[in-house]
Amino acid sequence: MKFYTLEELIGKQVLAVTNFPPQQIANFMSEVLALGVVVDEGEIVLIQPDHSIPPSRCIL
C-alpha cells in the first residue's frame, strides 16, 4: 500500500470532513477525515478540487 509522504502533502488541497469530535487515532488525536479512494493494488488517492481554491473560500 502506498502512502503519501509529508513532502507530497505540503500545499496540497484535498477534500475533508471537519468538525468531528476528537478521536484517538494510533498515538494522536484527530478531528478531520481526509477523503480518498482506493485504486489499483491498494494505492490510496486523495480527492482534490479541479481548481485551486483560496483558503478564504474554503468552507469550514
Explain how this protein is built.
With 60 residues, the protein is mainly β. The protein has a single domain (12-53), classed as Nucleic acid-binding proteins (OB fold (Dihydrolipoamide Acetyltransferase, E2P)). Helices cover 7% and strands 27% of the residues. It has one helix and six strands. The chain has one helix at residues 6-9; strands spanning 16-17, 23-25, 28-30, 33-34, 36-38, 44-46. Strands 1-4 form a two-stranded antiparallel sheet. It has a two-stranded antiparallel sheet with strand order 2-3. A hairpin with a 2-residue loop joins strand 2 (23-25) and strand 3. The radius of gyration is 13 Å and the shape is globular. The chain starts with 5 loop residues before the first helix and ends in a 14-residue tail after the last strand.
The rough form would be described as globular
Strand order of the largest sheet: 1-4
So, CATH architecture? Answer: Beta Barrel
Order of helices and strands: HEEEEEE
Structural class: mainly beta
Share of helix among residues?
A: under 10%
Give average pLDDT, whole number.
85
